[in-house]
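Tokens for chain A. Residues wanted.
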């Protein structure tokens, strides 16, 4: 069952899908409509799941699940992955490449291959204060507090010189 993102508890589980490009306004409308439909029908072995989504910076799709209501199962997670894959196909966008790394350069969000990120760090184009997106966070609370952080506060720190 779909609920407003703001109504989910901070303990809700999140999955962050980073697009390899910005979504257009039309794509955001398509994603939003399809996400509501998907979440409304999302189940775990026939039991309803309570979830939501949010889109950040027109580039990150976050699916959230209130596991205090019902937790995710392998089948329900597989269903969410199929949903994301259908969006990728329909919108010609990559949402699941975990080797892409995102960081801010002023107001601009850059998404680069991990190997390029490592090279930027060596060349000091990226430093410990560079704002990065830690897509490894697992809860809504961590998403809101620890997702957008300086590189020194994230797993990205291991690549800094």
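Reply:
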């Amino acid at each position: 069952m779909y609920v407003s993102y703001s109504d989910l508890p901070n303990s809700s589980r999140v999955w962050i899908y980073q697009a390899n490009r910005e979504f257009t306004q039309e794509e955001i409308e398509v994603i939003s409509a399809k996400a509501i439909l998907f979440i409304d029908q999302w189940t775990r072995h026939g039991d309803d799941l309570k979830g939501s989504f949010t889109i950040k910076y027109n580039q990150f799709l976050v699916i959230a699940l209130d596991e205090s209501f019902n937790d995710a199962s392998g089948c329900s997670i597989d269903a969410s992955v199929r949903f994301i894959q259908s969006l990728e196909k329909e919108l010609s966008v990559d949402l699941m490449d975990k080797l892409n790394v995102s960081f801010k350069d002023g107001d601009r969000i850059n998404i680069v291959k991990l190997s390029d990120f490592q090279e930027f760090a060596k060349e000091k184009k990226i430093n410990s204060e560079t704002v990065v997106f830690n897509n490894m966070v697992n809860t809504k609370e961590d998403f809101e507090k620890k997702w957008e952080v300086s590189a020194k506060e994230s797993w990205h720190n291991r690549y800094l010189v």
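The mean pLDDT is 93. Residues 33 and 55 are 12 Å apart (CA to CA).
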